[in-house]
Amino acid sequence: MSGSIASYDQLVRQVEALKKENSHLRRELEDNSNHLSKLENETSDMKEVLKHLQGKLEQEARVMVSSGQTEVLDQLKALQMDITSLYNLKFPPEAAGAGRSAEDSPPPPAPHRDGAGDLGRATLRLL
């Protein structure tokens, strides 16, 4: 009889420990969810800023082309190539998932048309 009481007490302690762990994990999940929402909002804001800058750059590129200021545009082309090269050196595509298993790696981001690289390509297309 005392053996079953001891095992019952042990089960009660385990249930209490699991409840505490569950509460902790729920709080952590809520914190992570809030942080993710904040990051998504910041990303959205940054995309809007990039779109605005892209429009301004395209407008300025048209003005430069129409006024014959091609030297500055050539410098911008070179700068864009330098930035792209540096980015690819720092963040090589094949090394992005190195050291992670397939389950740990998030899926690759979907291609989109409003990134910084597209900004430079759009400006260069005007030339």
- Are there runs of 5+ residues with pLDDT below 50, and where? 95-116
Biggest β-sheet: count, sense, barrel? none
Shape: rod-shaped
- Kindly estimate the percentage of residues that lie in beta strands according to DSSP: under 5%
Order of helices and strands: HHH
Q: In total, how many beta strands?
A: 0
**What class do helices, strands and sheet pairing give?**
mainly alpha
Q: Tell me the span between the first and last alpha carbons.
A: 89 Å
The share of residues in helices is: over 70%
Average pLDDT level: 76
Secondary structure layout plus pairing:
Layout: H1 2-67, H2 70-90, H3 116-125
Structure description:
The chain is 76% helix and 0% strand. Helix 1 runs parallel beside helix 3. It has three helices and no strands. About 17% of the residues have low confidence. The longest helix has 66 residues. The chain has 127 residues and is an all-alpha fold. The termini are far apart.
Write out key terms for the chains shown.
127 residues; 3 helices; mainly alpha
Concise structural overview:
With 127 residues, the protein is mostly helical. The chain is 76% helix and 0% strand.
